[in-house]
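Appendix C reproduces, verbatim, an entry submitted by the partner laboratory led by Prof. M.T., so that reviewers can inspect both the input and the predicted structure.
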Amino acid sequence: MSCVLTVDVGNTTTNIGLFSITRSERPSSAVEPETELLGSCILTTPDRLTTDEARIQLEQALALMPNEPIDGTILSCVVPTLTDSWRAALSFSCGVRVLVVGPGIKTGVRMNYDDPAEVGPDRIADVVAARATYGSPALAIDLGTTMNFEVIDEHGAFAGGIIAPGVALGARSLAEAAARLPIIELRAPERVIGHSTRAAMQSGVVLGEAARIDGLIDAVFEELGYSAPIVITGDGAESLAALLRHEATVDTTLTLRGLALIWQANVRHLRH
């Protein structure tokens, strides 16, 4: 058994998770869902971060988790200016080589994308975890600053996806663009037809997001020619899943688990 520390730096939040992994005897490119989350922590992602600041945040996060020896670390970062700081902090605090998800990483998943280097590391992690956990085909939906659809086809390949503004970004843009509209709480209203400005905005933003997701799911399945299990992760996943017409599984650790699985797939490669 190994322990791996996973760090997913997003535009809004940074998620940290400690996993125990039972190694597979299959080739290193094989990904096995033999993981257990031992502890996790969510931080706010700042605009800028020094290596020392990243070290402080990391050590505070580790203090909230079981005191287990760390065998490896893996970093997913969609904010390029923060990558070096987090990589240096992980290397210093954990004393092990840091694997950064990017071009050349081993995933065991064929990427049917015009330029695989364009696919964000968090999206890759979602694909790996969704395929390992839910099989092929599968559809992963990640809610955050952006809303990402990741499509795994019936052959287990990454078929592509959809990127759209996230629900919080949509609400913020609406309030910023229209002077008389307020910032609203992101929750579903009691009825579709709002009887106040806030309720009307909640209907348009929250119920509208659910309707958009349902519509995109229908379009994806129509284009594929078959349906697939749906898994939702990210900010407000449970609340939004309850509003969908489609049945969906909420998996809050999907991205971090995908990072742990990618580390497992690369561990032999790192030792050479």
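Residues 197-224 form the longest helix (28 residues). Additional entries are available on request from the coordinating office.
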